[in-house]
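**Reference record**
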Amino acid sequence: MPLPPRLVNWLKATYQRPQINPEWLEACYEYITTELGVNSDDFETLKSHVDEQFLQSSLTDSVLPNNGLPAPDSHDIRIKNTLCEVVAITEIGHSAFSLKNMTARTIRDGHKTMRAIEYRRIPELELGVTPLGLKIYLKDVNVRRGIIFLEPNGIKIKGYQTEEFEQNQDRDFVRGLRLRMRLPEEDPNEQRAPDPRPEPGPVNRANPPATQPVVSRPVTGGGAGGAPVQRPVNPSVPTRQTASSTKGKAPVVDLDPQDLDVDFEDSYSIGDGIGDETLDINDAFLQELEEAEQRALMREKDEVVIDSDEEIQPEIKPKSKAEPKSKPNPKPGPSKRMKVEEVIDISD
């Protein structure tokens, strides 16, 4: 089916570069007139449908090579009246960890690819909002060192998007971020290993398990008349469950060793069976505990006796030189009185 000359001339005037592929245009015209039922004489409707199909297509399929963008290493030249499409967008105003400022993009004419940056802010171009495959018509832009400097007055946003690019946009965006952060690329064909951790069992909230009461154990010989004395189990010594007692139950500690930054050779009881031995509290244990308490009391009594037997040294104060030496005046006994009386009688 021959193409209307008016349609061909309009396309050449509207999109000067790159040149539209005639084979693609014929297939598009046939689809619009047969499948969509558009009359070939209705130029306005026909023109609108062809323009929409062209902007939604990938330029790789709809244009001819070698008549669009210049060489990627071009410098100090200007590009005019050239249609291109956005194939990648990256923020360059901040680091890859804080994406919010001027954007850099990769554009192509279907066959040649060049880098472009916002020389002045363009609100229509925003990371995460602008779809890949967006068509931009370069009216008059400058190229320096292989980079196209985009300005609002030098371009025209034609819009639309390409389904092929849009499907891979998230994957390409993540890939670009990982490269900027110096992280290895992810293999899309690599399957993640299943989580080795067991799933916790269901919790029966209606019938909670009954807790075992603390039972006091009798110790003989401590009460009046030889009656047994009830001694409660020492609450400071916890009992531990063995591996057999927890069989069939959800583990208390559900940790993945790969998620913990610890040395498991020095770790203790983190679900690895270390320190799970049983500590039984029986009558022999309580008897040993009581004997240890009695020995401690005996040691305390011995220390008190030793302290009481120590001689207390009186405090000796130094005497001054002016004080006369005092002689003890002992109380005379009966024999001394008799001797004094005899002396008095002789003198008379």
